[in-house]
Amino acid sequence: MLLNWGCSGALANPHLNSYQAVCKTVDKRSALIHMKEKGVRVPKFLVNYTPMVDVNIGDGIWLERFDVTGHGGRGIRVVRPGDEWSVPPAPLYVQYVPKKLEFRVHVFATDDDPRCLVRQKLGVEGSNRTRDQQLIRNTENGWVLGNVRDSRASAKAEEEAIKAVHALGLDFAAVDVIIGRDDELPYVLECNTAPGLEAEAVIDFYKSNIIRYYRSEQWLYVRGS
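RESULT FIELD:
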């Protein structure tokens, strides 16, 4: 059984996560477009947009994304009202949604009964974060993944994460989901096809689900095996 862990190159018929689906997901522009088309709630975004030429995109904070395949917040510049836009423009602009909470939802969806493991992003005690680091919640900016502290909000995040995985044609992924501060609705930021195994619970989640999938013999009958 061949497991595709984040490779967007042409693999020989993987049984979990086709390279076509991974390639679609790795490019954050195509991922947002496909998720939006399938009814997944995502932030407002703009592709091939030139702020210096096109109409005003409105108030609020925007994230200029210069690296559309990067991870960990790489290649992101925060643009606040009154700031100058970068020249040349970025390939992707995403409007910042003020967040109440943020989760990483690990989804394994090879059948009609998707399994999930939810981790909540939490601020490290004593970490002095800048304004930008408050917005972009990654390890470098003083945020870690821990146990869920709001089960009601995590249930919303889980539901939207499953929709995102299905929309992109993936079998498994780690989905970053926020809960909006103003409307308390879930928004999918991105899907990760090479999830970080930062905790024993995460390792156990993937291990048990991969074994369950293998033992079901379902993998023998997918993608022309």
